[in-house]
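Feature request disguised as a bug: please show the residue count (218) next to Thioesterase/thiol ester dehydrase-isomerase in the output. Example input:
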Amino acid sequence: MAYIARTIGLTTRRQVFTPLTALATRTFTSSSRLSSGESKDLRPPSTQIFTPADVQAGISALSAAGYDPTTVWEQRVVWGDHDQFQHVNNVHFVRWFESARMFYANTLTESDDFSEKRREEITRGTGKSFILAGINVRYRRPVVYPDTLLVGQACELPLGKERFMLRGAAYSLAQKTIVAVAAQDCVTYDYTKLKKCDIPEDIKKALEARGSHFDKKL
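Example output, currently without the count:
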């Protein structure tokens, strides 16, 4: 176990410092040496570590894997996310998938099929909405600072009677690949009666419109 810990530490130590130097060079080069016709990047320098093209490539990769490109959540990694093994502690991913799930729920109700009252019920838990019953996260690669993750979501088809599986994937802009995936077991719940209920038709329609058939389990 000690050998494994030391090995991880050595690996992530190289990942922390080498990419930082390379990315910093790319940042200042891209913002200070502009060719004619190019517009200056007015984003904060720390945001310029990754270009808009990097972000678009990440969204495209998530879309190709079956995730909804219109509900991608951007999550910046901070130094304090590291643990003693010198990479992001795994528990942070659960929070990041939670933030992405709530963003997914908010965007799910943006269509005209939802009244203002229904939007409030779904996002605030005051009527028929859905609740997390369980989450399974599989970690593929360690993540280190500096990095920004793009978290994609998609409902796994077909839906159940009173539950559905929300699949998630975290794409690393630094590593240019998916570093973690999640299966989030969601149950539709009537908060006024405090019990499970069948998936409401408005939610069902919205989920199926943005759903995807995944080839394999986690």
